[in-house]
Amino acid sequence: MLTLATSSHPPCGLIPRRDWLRSAGLAGLAGLVARSLARGANPPATGPRPVGFGRAKSVLLVYASGGQSQLETWDPKPSAPLEVRGEFQAIPTTVPGTFLGEHLPRVAQLAHRYCIARAMSHDDLDHGSASYLTLTGQFHPIKSSNPPPLPTDMPVYGAVLNRIQPPERFPYNAIHINGPVLVPETPAPGQNGGILGRDFEPLVLGDVTTNEAPVPCLDALPDLPGLRLTARQNLKANLERALADYDRNRKMGSRRAADSDLLYQQAFEMLATPRCRQAFDLAAEPDRVRDRYGRHRSGQACLMARRLVEAGVPLVTVMWNHSIRGQDRTPDLTDQYGWDTHNDIFEALKIHLLPRFDESFSALLEDMHERGLLEETLVICLGEFGRAPLVAAEPRFAGNSPGRKHWASVYSIVLAGAGVTPGSIYGASDRFAGQPVSGKSGPNDLAATIFWALGIDPAGHYRDAVDRPYPIATGQPMLGLWG
Q1: Tens digit of pLDDT for each residue in 114-146?
Q2: How far apart are CA 219 and CA 26, in angstroms?
Q3: 24-218+280-482: what fold?
Q4: CB 248: neighbour CB atoms within 10 A?
């Protein structure tokens, strides 16, 4: 995983002359860019556009890692026994007959803008491998485990997107914010380029609430006009032509040179385009907007995501919480809390997790709608699984009151925008929110839906460095989302 470490930087518009060469390294640190179109990654055959296909210019994923409880959020069961329904009440929404958990009042007032998919399901029961499944659409070779990231992993969605199409509206096709996700202290697999290599990985931004630049060295020098920037770019081109002669008969060498050229081009484009540089500047937002999202890591990450979508990034992923269970180390810091609530679930949700989620996710949906971005953006909020129907204490975990264990048999996600039927329910769980009863879908189907919405046929293939074909997705698009 390529994480850009934030560091102090000169005021806007100032970069020391000696740091010019770091602009070339910017692309290496970012590690992305598609090199060529994948074979088979073509749209469906000509004719009427299939439902939902190509409706999204961008996809914005909000990844609530750790296992967000469906019973306290999107699928409450007020008629179930107390040991199933838990301590919270259900509240009505703007959609008659649809209820949410009581600590989501703002999100409940926006139910007419999103669809709740209540029958997501799989059988992987640990955070590392389930995160891998959620972010790649593929099962890890070792289910229900916490393996380290490996070069043999399948690539994250953004890496696949980088492989099958070059950037068009923005130098980066895919950006992760508030990452990487830790499980709970080491990075989960499935967040990087895997078999495609580091060159295809998304740009990763860490904590955007610091006073440091999310992407260092993006400000242009006042005394470095466009003419000099172009001259330096031409000098680089001349040097690379000489290198190309050397590599002409070395296939892998030529490919690496071509990849490097695109990475350099990306760095130059970022420096030369004020619109791109400014997309990373949260300080440009009015205070009232920043306050509405919440002045905390997850809230400002959502605001950054909106800015990047607005700037033209096709795939943005917000890691809602950077650790699935940071509360074990710092229980008094809400920023550290994750959704892995084995014990003390009601206290953690009521005080730490749900108020901030309600504040920031509702702000994101409102802001996207008011700016006209929802029309062409598919917003998805999801976790790697849900929580068990039975409230019970788990002796292996810290805490003074009961919680809920991991549960992948059924859980809920939320989708909005890009033509998805607003105010709808897709699929259903049983009366205990324990098993799907209709509309069952898996992470592989969601992966297919993401690419389908972006206008990429998920039945196609991309190829790795040694020309082996891999399916873009193994599931089927969830076409019922579009009515």
Answers
A1: 999 999 999 999 999 999 999 999 999 999 999
A2: 12
A3: Alkaline Phosphatase, subunit A (3.40.720)
A4: 11
